Every structure is written in C-alpha cells, then in structure tokens.
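Figure 2 data, in text form.
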Amino acid sequence: MTVSYSLEVANARFHGFSRLLFRWKGSIYKLMYKEFLVFCAVYLFFSVFYRVILTPKQQDLFERVALYCDQFTNTSFIPVLFVLGFYVNQAFTRWWGQYTSFPLPDNLMMVVSGNVHGADERGRLLRRTLMRYANLSSVLILRSISTRVRKRFPTLEHVVEAGFMTTHELKNFESLHSDFNKYWMPLTWFSNLAAQARQEGRVRDDIALRLLMDELNNYRAKCSLLFHYDWISIPLVYTQVVTIAVYSFFAFCVIGRQFLNPEKGYISHRFDMYVPVFTLLQFFFYTGWLKVGELIINPFGEDDDDFETNKLIDRNIQVSMLAVDDMYQNLAPIVKDKHWKNGLFSVPYTQSTAAETLRPAFKGSTFDMRMSTEDLEIHQPTDVPVTKQYLPLPNSLGDGLCGFQQKSKVILRSGSLPFLVDVLTHHVENEADEAEEVGTDTPNQEDPGKAMA
C-alpha cells in the first residue's frame, strides 16, 4: 500500500520533516535495517578479532592492512557517489515514466458515454461491453507485470469469475495462437464493436467514431508502454556495477575504519572510540540510497511504496461502468444558477479563509511598476528630426502626468509660490475656455451639412 504523508507536509513549519522520521511503514529503516545489522556485526567481529585474538605481531600486520584499506576509502578511488547518484536518477525517471503510463479509462469512458447513444438495453449493452473490453486489456497487461495482480488473478478462469471476461470470450482468446502477449485482443474487440455500433447508428457520424478510435489508441499505447517498461529494464551491467561499488566500498571500510592502537601514533588514529559513528552514518546514507534505487526500479511489486495495482483495477472498472451506464443521460434539471441576475458577484468564504479576501488579486508582476516621464518618451531614428512625444496613459492617469509635467516646468522657471498659484488658476480657466469653444464649434460644423441636405 502506498504510504501517503501529503497532509503532514501541507504547510511548512518548524521540524515539519522531522515528524516523518518516526514512521516505520515505508521508511528507510524498514528497508535496510537487515543490511545495517549485518554491517555492524561484521565490523564488531573484526574489532574483537583485532583487540582480543591477535598476537602483537599479528596486530601489526592487521594495522598495516587497515591503513592500506583506509587509504582507498578516504579517496575517490571507488566513485561511489557518481555511479550511485546517476543510477538512482535513472531509476527515478523510469519510475515516474511507469506511473504516467498507467492506463486509466477516464478519457475513454467520457467519449463512449457521449458518442455511443441509446437508452435502451442494446445501447446500454454496447457501452458497458466497450468499457469492459478496455478494462480487460489493462487487467491482462497488469497480470503480466505486477505480482499483486498475478496473485489475485493467477489464471484466466479467475478473470472470468471476476466478470472481466465471458466464457465465450475466453474460448476466442485461447483459440488464437500467438507466441506473444495477447493483451491487445480485447482492444481489437473494442474497435470491431465500435464499428458495428457505427453501422447500427448508435455512433452517429464518422467524426465520433474517429474520436473513439483515437482515445482507444491512446489507451492501447499506455498498455504497450507498461509492457515494454517491464521487458526492457535498466541494463543489468549498470545495476551490477553500482551494487559492487557500494558493497566493495564498505567491505574495505569494515577493516580500514577500525580504530587502531593510539599508542602507536598512527595518523588519524589518536582516539579509540570503539563505535565508528561517521562510518555508520556513511553506510546508512550510501546503502539507503542504493535501496531506494532497488525500491523504485520496479514499482509493480509488493513493497510498501509500490503501486496499488489491485486498487486501481477496482477503481477503473467501477467508475467506467458508472460513467457509461448509471450516469448516461442522467442529468439534473437545468435551472438558473444562483448568480443569474448578478453581472458581478463574489463567492463567499468561510471564517478561516476570509483573510484571503484582503489581499489584492495578482494581475502581473509589472502591473504596479512605476515609470518616470522620461521613460515614456518615444525614441526616434537619428535621421528624423527629434520631437519629444509621449505615449498616452489610460484615462485620467495620462492627463494627470502630462499636466504635472507642464506645471513642474513652470515651477522650476518661476521659483515663487504666488506665481505657482497664479499659474494653476490660469491653467484651470484655460481648460474651461477650451471646453466652451469646442461646444460652440460643434453646431457650426453641423450647419453646412443641414444646408446641403
């Protein structure tokens, strides 16, 4: 069962991720505690062997071997980080690709429900059979790649018992001999049945039939992709290289990271701590990283974080049958909505979300950007006489900026407050006079037209 912790990390808070460290199901502790205990036991064995069993002469030989091994574990002689990081990255890309390739019937069932018509028994039979064929194809492909589904449907008789296939269809399925996987056969039945529905007029035009076939091909492509993901794995040689690199590195660490006699004055061996804390942490990180790659390289197993294929099968068959049968032409009465008479309306908030209404809506990162009047000047080519022009701003904002620019130039020339008041007064009077002149000129322009008429 997939371990979900989305609710615990919905909000960033103090020690948010730390709370996840104490979970056991799906944890790294459950995944690698056996390897960790084996490493600790082997390290303890060599430690006791060195301290208690060996003679002083034998201890000198062991110390030289330990220093030699430690020389390679503290350098990049074994490129563990490189090979392990690249491997896990490829495994994660493959894992995500398999997740996005899972065949879901949602698009197909919408097309079937909207384009295969008929409220009678024949129309209902056509729609349900079409979706049953689609779900049967996914069950057949999942039986081939998922251990959970294989245990649930060990034989085709179990598939018939579950209702995905009839006995006659099973006979047709088994009568066709092929050396390859026959998951595609139900999809062929789907296409033939869709063509028959077109001949009966249940599918009303060729465009609707084309839409059905397009969605069917998309569904088939995902089934095929899952099959090829299971067939073509990450090359075995790379998996072996990564595993050998990690295990050999810690095989050297078992001897090379032993605490030697500090009285002999070896470099970096001035303390005898008995427990190699940082070596254990290094083993936890590197081996845990390797186990993560082992976990996600095939998500169709029975690990805690593997895909819940059986649940997905149950969900797919249920929702597809509901969509094409129970919900076919099952519409509520069409009525005017609550905001029918309101041209501009707002949707209410609860008390816990009311504070969001105080924040203005985002209209763009440059919406509130301020610009000076010089930034509004239009740049002219050098061979054209330069005349300063300004791009008009919308409504009163542009008029206000232009008026402010003219007044500011006058203020800079005069430099006195009485002169400023006089200028502002005359400016308002001039605008009123211009408005009166425009009003008196308009009838005069209309008189020639009337005379000509």
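Caption note: The chain has 15 helices and no strands.
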